[in-house]
């Protein structure tokens, strides 16, 4: 009898710690991200989300713990990690003086790809940017710029893409455009790690959600699993399901300031709720 082991996760993080002088940003972060899935790292400003992404993308070294991407250690095998990933930060890395096509051709040439123009045209078609390909990026709307930015990140077909708060500052219509792109990426086999402070974004997109609070992962599961951490719904005439916002506030202990680390149990996935952003005051 032969047995097949489960494939290794695309991203594995164990005991990750990072401090800036006396400020402890990460205090032992652990999580796995399965291949071809969308994993949301949810937390308010200052929770350490960008620090995690910077470590995983080899831009920053951790103080303790280990992290691997695509089976490669981010410290000792940084070169292999960089070949496997792409990073889209909070602000678009688009050159406004170039056209959409020229931006893509430039990145393809920097990656030493064959037929850079063909690579650019394929991505323009994939992201529905063909009609604006000849326009300078400075004339693009926020949604178009973000789509171009993500398209640039996919030059070379990385297996893992990091999206650090990709919809910050976008209007609702542009956010929906980006959500559609992210969903399509995962559908085509790309592993997506998404950081966000928008509860509805995590609720709408993610296969799994990890809540990062005060440098620690205090909950990690599917939306349905996280909802089981909330007290049973009160039933009057209809059943009222908790929103992700209510789950989040209950987990971090908004009234007492005390976080409760609990392990969720599996159940079915629930539907998204209305847009809400974490309190960043």
Order of the strands making up the biggest sheet: 6-7-8-3-9-10
Number of helices: 9
Radius of gyration: 20 Å
Structural class given helices, strands, pairing?
A: alpha/beta
List the helices and strands and how they pair.
Elements: E1 11-20, E2 23-33, E3 38-42, H1 49-56, E4 64-69, E5 72-73, H2 78-84, E6 85-88, H3 100-110, H4 116-126, H5 142-153, E7 160-164, H6 172-187, E8 191-196, H7 199-205, E9 208-213, E10 216-221, H8 223-227, H9 244-252
Protein described:
With 281 residues, this protein is α/β, with parallel strands linked by helices. The chain has one domain: P-loop containing nucleotide triphosphate hydrolases (Rossmann fold). It is built from 9 helices and 10 strands. It has helices at residues 49-56, 78-84, 100-110, 116-126, 142-153, 172-187, 199-205, 223-227, 244-252, and strands at residues 11-20, 23-33, 38-42, 64-69, 72-73, 85-88, 160-164, 191-196, 208-213, 216-221. A 6-stranded mixed β-sheet has the order 6-7-8-3-9-10, with helices on both faces. Strands 2-1-4-5 form a 4-stranded antiparallel β-sheet, covered by helices on one side. Strand 4 and strand 5 form a beta hairpin. Helix 3 (100-110) crosses helix 4 and helix 5 (142-153) runs parallel beside helix 6. It is globular. The termini are far apart. Residues 256-275 have low confidence and may be disordered.
């Amino acid at each position: 009898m032969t047995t097949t082991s489960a494939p290794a996760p695309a991203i594995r993080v164990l005991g990750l710690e990072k401090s800036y002088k006396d400020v402890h940003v990460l205090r032992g972060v652990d999580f796995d991200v399965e291949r071809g899935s969308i994993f949301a790292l949810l937390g308010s400003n200052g929770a350490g989300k960008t620090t995690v992404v910077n470590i995983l993308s080899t831009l920053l070294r951790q103080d303790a713990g280990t992290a691997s991407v695509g089976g490669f250690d981010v410290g000792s095998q940084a070169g292999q990690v960089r070949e496997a990933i792409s990073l889209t930060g909070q602000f678009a890395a688009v050159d406004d003086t170039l056209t959409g096509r020229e931006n893509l051709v430039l990145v393809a040439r920097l990656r030493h790809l064959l037929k850079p123009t063909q690579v650019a045209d394929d991505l323009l078609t994939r992201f529905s940017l063909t009609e604006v390909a000849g326009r300078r990026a400075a004339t693009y709307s926020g949604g178009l710029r973000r789509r171009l930015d993500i398209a640039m990140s996919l030059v070379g077909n990385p297996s893992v893409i990091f999206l650090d708060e990709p919809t910050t500052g976008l209007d609702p219509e542009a956010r929906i455009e980006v959500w559609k792109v992210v969903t399509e990426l995962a559908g085509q086999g790309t592993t997506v790690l998404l950081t966000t402070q928008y509860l509805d974004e995590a609720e709408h997109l993610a296969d799994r959600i990890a809540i990062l609070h005060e440098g620690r992962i205090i909950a990690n599961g599917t939306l349905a699993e996280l909802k089981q951490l909330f007290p049973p719904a009160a039933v009057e005439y209809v059943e009222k399901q908790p929103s992700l916002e209510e789950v989040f506030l209950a987990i971090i202990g908004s009234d007492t300031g005390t976080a409760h680390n609990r392990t969720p149990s599996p159940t079915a996935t629930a539907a998204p709720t209305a847009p809400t952003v974490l309190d960043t005051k």
